[in-house]
Every structure is written in C-alpha cells, then in structure tokens.
Amino acid sequence: MKNLKFNIWGIIAFSVIAFSCGSTEDPLPDVKIPEDKEDIKDEGVVAIPLKELFKDFFPIGAAVTPQQADPGTNHGVALQKHFSSITAENVMKPDALQRNKGFYTWEGADRIVQFAKSNNMKVRGHTLTWHSQTPDWMFYDQDGALLSKEIAMEQLKEHITTVVTRYKDDVYAWDVVNEALFDWDPNGVIVYREDSPWYKIFGESYIDSAFVFAHRADPNAKLFYNDYNSIFSWKRNKIYDLVKRLKDNNIPIHGVGLQGHWMVETSEQDIRTTLDLFRGLGVEIQITELDLPVYLSNTEPGSTVYTDTFSFRQKQAYSMIFNVLLDYSDIITGVTFWGIGDDHTWLDQPGRKAFPFLLDEELKPKPVYFEVQKLVQSRQ
Ligand code: GLA
What we know:
Layout: H1 2-22, H2 50-53, E1 60-64, H3 74-82, E2 85-88, H4 94-97, H5 107-118, E3 122-129, H6 149-166, E4 171-178, H7 197-202, H8 205-217, E5 222-227, H9 233-248, E6 255-258, H10 268-279, E7 284-290, H11 308-327, E8 332-337, H12 367-378
Parallel strand pairs: 1-2, 1-8, 2-3, 3-4, 4-5, 5-6, 6-7, 7-8
Helix pairs in contact: 6-8, 11-12
Bound molecules: alpha-D-galactopyranose.
Residues 126, 178, 228, 259, 289, 346 line the site of alpha-D-galactopyranose.
Protein name: Beta-xylanase
Active site: 289
Family: Belongs to the glycosyl hydrolase 10 (cellulase F) family.
C-alpha cells in the first residue's frame, strides 16, 4: 500500500518535471510533494513529526515491544519518524530479565536498545524494583516463606548491578523503584504499599538501597522514582515526602516519574499544583507512561468506533496537558507515551477500545495530533 502511494506521488513528480523540462518560459512550479500523503490533514496542514515538534522542549518517547522496534515494520517506521526516546513496555522488568535466578534473558531488551542506538534515540530503563512482574524467587524461598533481609538484599543488589552495568552506555535514565507508595486510604495514614513483598521483608529501606545500587553501577544514570495517581494530593504528598527523605539522606535520586495514565477530564490544576510542589524538590520531572482513554469514567459504555465526541474530548484534554507541560519544560526532561498508536494499548478491553494516543490504529496522526501541533507551534 505504501509503495503504491509512493508510486502515485512519484508519477506526479515525474510529470511535473517532464512538463517543465519541455517549457522554456516558466520556472519549475513550486509544487510541494509531501513525503507521506496520509500525514496531510483536510485543510492541507502537514504533520510535523513529534520529535521535531517538541525538540525545543523535551524528548518525546514511546513504550514498545521488541517486535515493534524493527525498522521493517510499520511500528518501527513510526518510531523512527516520531520519537526521540524509547522505553521497553515489559522486557526490562525483573520477571522478563531474570525469570529464573541467575539466568538472564537479554534478547528482547537488547533488540530495543540496539534499535534505539541505530536511530539516535534515548532509552529509559523500566523498571528495576517493583512488587509486580517480579519473579517469586526474589521474595520467597522454596517453601513459600519470605526470604531473610540478607538474601533478598544480595539478590536485589545482584539484579540491579547486572542490569544497570549491562546498559551503562545505552540507558540514560532508570525507573529505579516503581509504585512503592500506598494509593489511597480513607484516613490518609498508610504511606507505603505494605502488601508489597519488598516492604514486608525490609520496610521502606529497600528503596534507599535500590537507588544506591543503581548509582554505584552507573554513576551517570539519571535515577527516578515512578508512580501513578501522582497528581492527586493524597499521593503527591507521599511522593514529595519520600523524595525529600531520600535527598536529605544523600540517596542518589534525580527525578520523579509521573506515569500520566490520565483521563480526558484530568484537572489542569492538579497537574500544575503537582509540578509546582515537585519543583521545590529540585529534581527532574518526566511524564513516563502517558495515555488518555477517551471515556469519562470506567462505567461509560464502551465503543469500538472513534467518535467525534471522543475526538473532541481528546483535543481539549491533550491541548490542556501539553500546554501545561510546555509551561514547565524547564523541569520536565522527558514525556513518554505508554505505546505508539491506538492499535496497541494495555487499556483496550473486548468491545471497549481506549484510543488513548495521538496516532491512530494505522499509526497516522489523528485530529487531536494536529490540535497539539497547533498548540506547540503557537508556543514557539
Ligand atoms: C504501570 C507500570 C507499567 C505498566 C503499566 C500498565 O503503570 O509502571 O510498567 O505495567 O502499569 O501496563
């Protein structure tokens, strides 16, 4: 299909050149031939690749599978075109890298890193320490009992050191600890996710240790604490306190990752208040997992069609979000979508598509893309 389009534009180009060669009067007409016809909006506006659009503000990234990081696929082409940063969606998580103790599986992660290197993209590492997608042997012995602090610590150290050392020259930033804080409790007193095996074994001190191990393995890497619901007061204050404690104790932490699994009705004030608060910590901020499902709530009936209403909601929401992010681009050092286009997202359910990105299921710019483009251009 793509070749066919190329041929059509090639024929037009050839005709223009052939025609003008036969004429002695007129100079070559100023016909601009777009590289990719589908990037044109109705009104004739050409989509600027995202990485160009945001180049004065921050790297723009996508979370990917190893299969997508392949220049021979549509996903690979879209990645090359639009993104300046890349995150492994799953294959750098503990259960993917070291499912069995002592046996590492590097293939998927290596493919992503290699693709990024060949295409001059940054790589964010995700994630070193998490209660989820982590093999049981990191927490439990063969009888299912929690490991001792000593054994669990040795294993955590070995894992972090091995992984960070391997990608020392390639991964510039790591989500060292993911989602260690309790989400919400009615009385607001539970700080840490106490049901995490990490917490059960160590209390909160594993967080400090993980950052130290990562820093020792690569003193140049930017080290992040990453969490969701981070723009709500009950969560952001816990993140603030945690990061402040780490910094006060000289633990090497450089940034906070706001996952950014937001909603179309996400409050602008919540985002601004959070960014203002974290600015006071003197750390970098990255939006690490941005996606915006089209629904107002989890109970709104699902659709498999991208309606005008969905498009309207996303235009409003994404414009607001990027307007805010540009306002804080002095502290925001990266924005990553948790996927490439609407064809692949963890948010889809049978009969209920989420359509959460700027690129559609064919990885072409949606109307909301052009709305964001207009916004960014107005800020340049
Ligand atoms: C969390 C994790 C990610 C990913 C997403 C959803 O936010 O940090 O690794 O699992 O959930 O898939």
